[in-house]
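Honest question from a wet-lab person: if I give you the sequences of every part of a complex, can you actually get the arrangement of the whole thing, not just the pieces? Trying it with mine:
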Amino acid sequence: MLLHLGGIQKRFGGVTALKNGSLSVRQGEVHLLLGENGAGKSTLMKIVAGLIAPDGGTFEWRGSPVRFRAPVEAAAHGIAMVHQESLLAPHLTIAENLFLGREEVCRAGLLKRSRMRERAAALIAQHKFPLQADWRVEKLTPAGKQLVEICRAVVSGSSLMIFDEPTSSLSESETREVFRIVRELRERGMAVIYITHRLEELRAVGDRVTILRDGETVHTAPLGEITNDEIIRQMVGREMSALYHREPAKVGEELLRVERISRKPLVKEVSLTLRAGEITGLAGLVGAGRSEFCRAVFGVDHADSGQVYIAGKPVEINSPRQAVQAGLALIPEDRQHYGLATLRPVGENISLASLPLVSTFGFLNQRAERRIIDTYMARLRIRAGSPKQLAGRLSGGNQQKAVIAKWVARRARVFLFDEPTRGIDVGAKAEVFQVMDELARSGAAILMVSSEIPELLQMADRILVMRQGRISGELPGRTTPEQIMRLAALETTTSEFAS
Amino acid sequence: MIQRLLPFLTLIVLFVGLTIASPFFLTQTNLSSVVRQTAVINIMALGMTLIIIAGGIDLSVGSILALGGLLGTMAMAQGYPIWVGIGVGVLAGLACGLANGVLTTQLNINPFIVTLGTMGIVRGLALIISNGLPVHQIPPRFSFLGEGTLFGLPFVLWVLLLCAVAMHILLENTRLGRHSFAIGSNPDAAYYAGIPVKFDTTIVYAIGGLLTGLAGMIEASRLMTGQPTAGNGYELQAIAAVVIGGGSLRGGEGSVVGTLIGAFIMGLLSNGSDLLGISPYVQQAIIGAVIILAVTFDELRKRKMTA
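Yes, you can. This is the full assembly:
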């Protein structure tokens, strides 16, 4: 046994993150670590990688007990972690990043630059990464950065690599590329721990699976001996069929019409119409220009050309402010960065866009504001200790509902959801879908951008597909994943990993 | 909770300690002089609180204080009434703050750099206008602003309280205040929420400048001169007051009460050192150490909160 964890405990202040975390990993296996958000997966892996220290439990590495006080100690034992967020230095090249902290120097203390570049290039070629050693990291897509992180772990000669949701920001073809690399690492005798939210990825890559629930390891099994339904049941602790069942909506009048909007380099003459009561899906690969389209419509980026009509009337939108005044709402993909002030109370986040509705001459009417906050916290079933709880301390699902509540409170009528279920657990997904359904029923027009095809098929009344900046087709809501993929798909080329 | 109250407890401990240590501390003369000495920094620090909450910083306040005081006293020297002079000083501060805001938001340059630049420009302006010479021909009644007494308390204390209450209301009960917290906490999220980030940020700097202009007039009144070299290094004291009081240079955090406590802690430290005969050289080091200690405790508290 390469790694053995037993009865690991970890508390943060009053919150118990892990009460009984157990995990055994063998050499040369890909071990999947599953669980809902908050189940303790990331905490457990941070303990393995030496980022945090456990409060109790046993931690054995190659049969002998260890205790890491810093990531470098874990690295010295051959444990590397590929993080969800990139930890690369953006202004340096790939080669420089690969050797960061272990630069090769000559006797005089000067860097052996060309030698390191050659070694990096050789390594990239050996693993067939679609990268080049002298590319600057800031030019890479999230997928490209992830590959560099993987490369870096390989350079350091690790024997255990931990992937924390490596594919959450990757497209299908990029995901396949990561799987190929993971399989190759396994063939070289490396062990891999793989955290994921996407159930459909399991079979493609894993050998065994360990499931965490509420800070406890509840199940470990070889993948061949467990069904997807069983996995979901173990994760959520209850039976679950489809995530959400939505009755087709009654479609009303046109609320948003976009005509031939363009924004270099990713949005090319996109036109679409959103109607009251309807959920329109927008599918496509990562990099197809879907988020960029939303940003152009919402005025974050200026459109180069094109026209937006709200309820049939042309409007000019050059800033989010104008978009908000026109009744638009954007629920951004990266809610921590663009959707929430995480260090402010959840209540303030909810009322933030609605302050003009509850103030006179710039002075806030606190009672009216409180009424708005209470109303929408209840209506969207946001679970927080109180409106004063910091938004950043809520679970992913509740954070997402707070972002939505902000716009419902503002009485927005057109909602642009960009990857609404990114990084939130299965139970919370169903709740977000229910909120979207209720919004549509109350007469809102909804655009749902999603890379999760099964989710689009469950929710959308019709599905538009984008490819390389253009709408490549429209499909009815009851279409098949294959038809969507056919309209969205592209050959994998190196150009997909750099812009 | 104890850690949140730490600045306040420190202030009390200092107060009690000094009362015991020196018979001259708890006297009306001494306490009024502490209030008068701290008022200038305090009023500047109120503006700085708003700026820091909105995620900014203003290094030019020391220079603005000098320019405001100079122009105000020059107006009086020209024969304009005192209230006009005060108005000129305050408006000069407002104009400088507005310039800081416009430069920061329109050129999209880091406010640290912008105000580092305007710190030099405004100081230079004051020196050029005055030719480096102080203004002395000031009507004697002007000294009431800094040295007068109203209802048994220093007049500046009333001015300070008025400014503090106004700033507290601005922060807690107005849209601009709420926007400032949001902008400082996450400017992108604020922009996405439809908040006029640039406009609000500009106003925030303008308010900071206005308060600094007022502080400049108080300083001029206390010294009874308009000094182009006044306020050197005050920006750091104002920032220190905000930070000791729990403000975060990363934005989104800070309070009026905290800043007042922070400014008074520094005021008492320097007054106490004077009373106990500690040399001003040592004083500087003590205040520096207190700043680091205060921020360390505050960071520890926040880390516990967000872990």
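Two things worth pointing out. Chain A has two domains: 3-236, 254-497. The CA atoms of residues 148 and 336 of chain A lie 24 Å apart.
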